[in-house]
From TrEMBL:
UniProt source species: Thermosulfuriphilus ammonigenes
Protein name: Phosphotransferase
Database matches in InterPro entries: AGP_Transferase, Aminoglycoside_PTrfase, Kinase-like_dom_sf
Pfam families hit by this protein: APH
Domain Aminoglycoside phosphotransferase: residue ranges: 27-259
Alphabetized UniProt keyword annotations: Transferase
Lineage summary: Bacteria, Pseudomonadati, Thermodesulfobacteriota, Thermodesulfobacteria, Thermodesulfobacteriales
Annotated GO MF terms: transferase activity
Length: 333
């Protein structure tokens, strides 16, 4: 007997029947960091997953559907989008299973899948953004405003104030603003499609190949952000030598100027670390305790990063980060 969804969930069997498909719920799938709900279904056309939006999430569901159809048509390895019921925001899509890149690398040392992830990123960045859907979940582009108000401000408010209970000196805040300005100045006039959460838990493994998920927040932006999200992912905690090998592979295959790409990579990796650390604290304090394990590795990566020459001009920020306590256990209470 399959367990029914809660009364707050749409009748998934009834919705499926509207598309001429019969099926039943097998299980609810944990949503990791998402407020959406996911159900695995057995149907007469094979296993599917139903994605039920969070309260107020109809636009997010529409973004997912439009981007999924576009990426699938362009040959990106994303789950096949089957059906969408816009009134409820419910999506029926291909079931990719439960195995993702983090598990494949940590348990089986699948470096080949990391190389495949770089190839997928290059494929995504090769698409013409002018032919992509003009629907954006938050902002059209990744730029200074998002860096300051979504990444730096979250680090100050959630990681420092709420988590560590420490004040951030004005000189550090000034460095964070200057850093965003300098990072934005590194962007060229040809933005690429940017996932903004291109990390190992958003790369599922099915039939020994990677499949990209959680792309509803796609926007336009610089190429190095997603690259840094993957290669400096705290879930993976890659060695510096492997990070360098994969960065070299990206440079060789993309043909981008090395010096400019490396500088942009450093600047955006820092913003990515600020975002990830605040997210780990927020999610842990919200009851998703498994994220606590990634706070200390993420902080160590941030400390290692600011030792690079790129951050010499930002001395106040550099000193502040290096002085942060390595033991982050107090952040989760």
């Amino acid at each position: 007997m399959f367990p029914p969804p809660s009364s707050s969930c749409p009748d998934l069997k009834a919705l499926l029947s509207l598309f001429g498909v019969s099926g039943q719920i097998r299980e609810e799938i944990p949503g990791d960091g998402s407020l959406r709900r996911f159900f695995r279904l057995e149907t007469d056309i094979g296993p599917l997953v139903a994605i039920v939006p969070a309260p107020g999430g109809l636009f997010e569901a529409r973004c997912w559907w439009l981007w999924a159809k576009f990426l699938y048509r362009k040959g990106l390895p994303v789950p096949r989008p089957y059906f969408f019921w816009p009134e409820e925001g419910v999506i029926f899509t291909e079931d990719l299973g439960n195995w993702h890149l983090e598990k494949a690398y940590q348990l089986n040392n699948r470096v080949d899948l990391l190389e495949e992830a770089v190839d997928i990123l290059l494929h995504l960045q090769s698409l013409d953004p002018h032919k992509a859907p003009r629907v954006f979940l938050e902002t059209t582009t990744y730029g200074r405003q998002l860096m300051v108000f979504k990444e730096s401000a979250a680090f100050v408010a959630i990681f420092c104030h709420q988590g560590l209970k420490i004040e951030v000196p004005l000189s550090v805040a000034r460095d964070l603003y200057s850093l965003a300005r300098v990072a934005e100045a590194s962007f060229d006039q040809n933005p690429v499609l940017l996932h903004r959460d291109f990390q190992s838990r958003n790369l599922m493994v099915k039939d020994n190949r990677l499949r990209l998920i959680d792309f509803q927040g796609l926007r336009l932006g610089p190429p190095a952000y997603d690259l840094a999200s993957l290669l400096r992912d705290p879930y993976l905690d890659l060695s510096p030598s492997l990070e360098e090998d994969l960065l070299q592979a990206y440079l060789r295959l993309s043909g981008r100027p090395e010096a400019a790409l490396r500088r942009q990579y450093d600047l955006l990796a820092l913003h990515r670390h600020l975002q990830a650390l605040s997210a780990f604290v927020r999610l842990t304090r919200a009851g998703r305790r498994h994220f606590a394990a990634y706070i200390s590795p993420g902080l160590k990566k941030l400390k290692d990063l600011v030792l690079r020459d790129t951050f010499t001009p930002f001395s106040s920020l550099k000193s502040f980060i290096l002085d942060l306590p390595v033991d982050a256990s107090s952040l989760t209470t």
